[in-house]
């Protein structure tokens, strides 16, 4: 196997990991931060949605940790390891990826060091089950926003590698998550509100 084929296998695996992390992330993000208070109240009152949103967030954390772990990690498809291997003295040096781009990516990853550390810490809690209260796993909407930035950075790195080394375009479109999913909690919340309103109306009617 030549180096280009070897790199393609690694990059495609990273793509698969990122795709799962991204899909899981956007489902969980919406279930934690829906469009309306009514939807949020319904989601928070539903054991089904509570389980789904937390499970998908955990999947996202676990998958992202594979990509953004420390270089010393044994994760074969670690993004930091890939960047080291692509440097002028690395395993894939003969493929000659732009050194300024590599330096820029490393600089931007360094700026996100604290967020990456938080993801790794959350991954450790998920694996060890030391956090009995799942709500503690979600810090705030800032966590989601910063996690989204990491996802987009990884996506950019993969796209540029495909363009510069494989002369191919790469767009990571969401396969499953789309606007239609957002209609589900919306419709269920509306139906629940109608049900409660009817109960109140019936109570007032029969209590006269």
In brief, what are we looking at here?
The protein is mainly alpha-helical and 208 residues long. Helices cover 73% and strands 0% of the residues.
Q: Unreliable stretches, pLDDT < 50, 5 or more residues?
A: none
Shape: elongated
Largest sheet descriptor: none
Estimate the strand proportion: under 5%
Alpha-carbon Rg, integer: 22 Å
- Strand pairing plus helix content: what structural class? mainly alpha
Number of helices: 8
Q: State the assembly state of the protein chains.
A: single chain
Q: Please give the alpha-carbon distance between the first and last residues.
A: 83 Å
Order of helices and strands, N to C? HHHHHHHH
What percent of residues adopt helix (DSSP H or I)? over 70%
Q: Report the strand count.
A: 0
Strand-helix topology:
Layout: H1 3-32, H2 37-45, H3 47-68, H4 79-86, H5 99-111, H6 113-128, H7 141-166, H8 179-206
Please give a handful of descriptors for the protein shown.
73% helix; 208 residues; mainly alpha; 8 helices; elongated
């Amino acid at each position: 196997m030549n180096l280009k084929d070897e790199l393609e296998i690694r990059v495609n695996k990273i793509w698969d990991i990122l795709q799962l992390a991204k899909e899981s992330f956007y489902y969980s993000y919406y279930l934690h931060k829906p469009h309306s208070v009514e939807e949020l109240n319904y989601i928070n009152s539903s054991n089904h949605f509570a389980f789904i949103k937390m499970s998908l967030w955990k999947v996202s954390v676990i998958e992202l940790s594979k990509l953004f772990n420390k270089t010393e990690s044994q994760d074969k498809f670690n993004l930091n390891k890939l960047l080291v291997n692509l440097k002028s003295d690395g395993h894939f040096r003969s493929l000659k990826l732009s050194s300024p781009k590599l330096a820029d990516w490393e600089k931007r990853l360094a700026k996100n060091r604290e967020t990456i550390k938080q993801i790794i810490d959350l991954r450790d809690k998920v694996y060890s089950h030391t956090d009995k209260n799942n709500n503690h796993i979600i810090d705030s909407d800032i966590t989601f926003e910063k996690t989204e930035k990491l996802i987009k950075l990884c996506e950019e790195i993969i796209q540029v590698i495909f363009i510069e080394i494989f002369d191919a375009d790469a767009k990571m479109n969401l396969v499953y998550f789309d606007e239609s999913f957002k209609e589900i909690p919306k419709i269920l919340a509306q139906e629940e509100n109608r049900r409660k309103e009817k109960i109140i109306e019936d109570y007032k009617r029969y209590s006269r």
